Amino acid sequence: MAKQQSFADKAAKAAQMKGAKCPVCGTIFQPLLTVSSEPSKTSGSVKFNERRVQVCKCNEKAIYN
Ligand SMILES: [Zn+2]
Predict the structure, then answer these.
(1) What is the residue range of 39's domain?
(2) Could you tell me the distance, in angstroms and rounded to a whole number, from the CA of residue 28 to the centre of ligand 1?
(3) Residue 34, by phi and psi: left (phi above 0), alpha (psi -120 to 50) or beta?
């Protein structure tokens, strides 16, 4: 049972670290990788920007629309 206990502890710790809650709506943030393309002014080629956003109920509609 010692192993099970430590696994539960680790899982609980991981959940605490990853599961940051939004102080406004109380939803646990879901990390989401968004990619936006921007035409570069200098070269004329398209540049891709990767951005990590934390999604909660406050901004999910703006992100998923
Ligand atoms: Zn929120």
Answers:
(1) 21-65
(2) 8
(3) beta
